[in-house]
Batch of 2 targets.
Target 1
Amino acid sequence: TEQAAIGKLNTQAASNGTLFKLVIFSLSLGIIPLTSYYGSLFYLWNGNSTLAAITAIVAANLVLIAYIVLSVLEDKQA
Amino acid sequence: MSVCPPYAPFFGFAGVASAMVLSTIGAAFGTAKAGIGIAGLGTFKPELIMKSLIPVVMSGIIAVYGLVVSVLISGALTPEGYPLFAGFIHLGAGLACGFTGLTAGYAIGIVGDACVRAYVQESKVFVSMVLILIFAEVLGLYGLIVALIMNSKVAGGVGEICYS
């Protein structure tokens, strides 16, 4: 019955997309800061690398805040 | 005494490496220590796992701080026209970001481990856990700010003093 409970939890996690959300967050935590650094360096700040670094840090912290909000909402749902 | 010796990029690259390596050591310790607590929590209450992964995500942010500083510094390194002043500044910036990331990751790990274990028994611990983790995270942010301020002194390009 222990294995049955684990299996039920896995299907539950797969159906509400928990693993998918975690994968998306892991990838975005790697991709979003770098793309926002280089993108803002060339298109927003005209080569000012300090402002581009600040943009990348703000983007990474937004990903963190989005994760916290999403996990609290998911807990309220269940 | 030359202003732009050929060994000046050594210090710049040491700054790049130390920013990435040291902040990653902190992030790895934070992830591992918090992960132990989350594995313990997962055996009792698996539905709380998404919320209790917050220390792990915050450790990842510490590594991102080190990554951004490394990318920032390495964008300014050149073989020609690189004064020793810029080399020392880049080394200082990398060490500032790296060591503060190490300390922040250490704090996040220990706090995350203890708080997720307490979260199993008392759900009101969650808000205080997030608050303590945010305070631990801004330690790394301070190091990043100092690194950015130091780097901005040579961000405009100071290679002209090599040729004067």
Note: Chain A touches chain B through 30 residues (CB under 8 Å).
Target 2
Amino acid sequence: MEAPNVEELLVQAERDEAQKLQRITVHKELELEFDLGNLLASDRNPPTTVRHAGATPEAELRALARDNTQLLINELWQLPTERVEEAVVARLPEPSTRLPREKPLPRPRPLTRWQQFARLKGIRPKKKTNLVWDEASGQWRRRWGYKRARDDTKEWLIEVPGGADPMEDQFAKRIQAKKERVAKNELNRLRNLARAHKMQVPSAAGLHPTGHQSKEELGRAMQVAKVSTASVGRFQERLPKEKAPRGSGKKRKFQPLFGDFAAEKKSQLELLRVMNSKKPQLDVTRATNKQMREEDQEAAAQRKKMSQKGKRKGGRPGPGGKRKGGGPPSQGGKRKGGLGGKMQSRPPGVGGKRRGGVQPHGGKRRK
Amino acid sequence: MDALDRVVKPKTKRAKRFLEKREPKLSENIKNAMLIKGGNANATVMQVLRDMEFFSKKSDCSLFMFGSHNKKRPNNLVIGRMYDYHVLDMIELGIEKFVSLKDIKNSKCPEGTKPLLIFAGDDFDVTEDYRRLKNLLIDFFRGPTVPNVRLAGLEYVLHFTALNGKVYFRSYKLLLKKSGCRTPRIELEEMGPSLDLVLRRTHLASDDLYKLSMKMPKALKPKKKKNISQDTFGTTYGRIHMQKQDLSKLQTRKMKG
């Protein structure tokens, strides 16, 4: 007697299950494509019911929407959930639909002069406190900026230094020095900026995607295009009023084979004199400085390597990683050719100043 | 950093933050949309624009919507997006039938929730125009990208159907009803604006510009874990690479003779 009851119960349970699932199952011919990161579903089935509906397909559209939404919700409920402040939250995957960006990728900027120097020497930024104790005012003040701790322009009493003219205005002198420092900083910043922007110009063949270009850019692009033929632009016609491009001649100029005899004689004799003289033409101070700088660099690289091996994850892998790349190539460059290799790292304008300034220091160091 | 690279540096921290927000970055900000009223836009178009404000924010943005109306192109709506402050794609849609938010007397959902998007119809994958339209609409209506979503907070769904050259845009409020199991049964209630749109002219970006805009930075590409593989049974295998062993120095058993 009980057996048929048990069977009946089982069948009843099965029917109940099917009914429950029926409420949320939807039958579709083609599966939908889901992009759960965007809460998106795409239904590829042709909407036949809507097509047959005629003028006002509202009810059919609604039914279609309901079915699709049910499928999307089913998918969403399958995601792993967690409790965040009494709400059940589902963790969404990354959106899979690729959408175009808003702005182009940021380009890597060339290093500023200080950054290059710091990399060379192995200098890393030291962590400093924000506030410094100021004796004069008896309070904690900023290290730099508005109302800073040691502002020498704000002193109310300046002793006249030993060798200075007693009638000179020391306060004005300090303010003047500060203005000069600020101006120099600004100049260097603008120079770094110019260098960075010069690097950013190269784009696809000199042409802009939308065509809004300056006259110079277009001119440059046109010149490059003209020269990119098999005969390097020799047989390209020019428009009637077009002028020849300037600055496109030879880069090196050689003397004619015979011409100025006096000048030639002079240069040959000078050469002989240099070869015969006993004094070395090598600038010893510059050579020693170069050597010392190389040694400094090597030492810095060694130190970096040691500290990398010593520390594990506690150290700072970022700057260390960068420097490893910077260290060996510049060393390799220096080893290649003596002065030639060195010339590359110094910009021509400021190099002159430094060369002049280096000598006295070099003399001191040698001692 | 672009904020520090300008000739005139920002004088306040607030200005600096503002500039940093606007410059190109690896992972970008959420796109904003601007809605523009054309020189001659009639009441229908105006109402559409006002309703679209219900779904989007406006400020300096990369998505735009422009409404106009003239005899040749009645009830015109142009949806577009920009890349690097130049126009990337523009699609012109004509509004055939429009039912506004206020015409449907229902309760509305709070502003700013992320909608569910559904595209129905095989047209959306077949034609290039429709594919771009789908991409553009996803971009427009997507909302901010979030890692988690509150399941009870999924409020409304935007449903686009492509049929016979027309695109039906409907928005429904989501009602979650009890079903026997964990996943609820869905009932829909027509809520928001409903539009019947016709695709008119398109101005799509050239292929290379589109590819340029889709370029993903290397840093954001998912990193593949190397030397790990799985077989069909689910066992994970790893690979270790060893250096060459010097067999003469191998530690073997010593035989005491």
Note: Chain B has a mean pLDDT of 76.
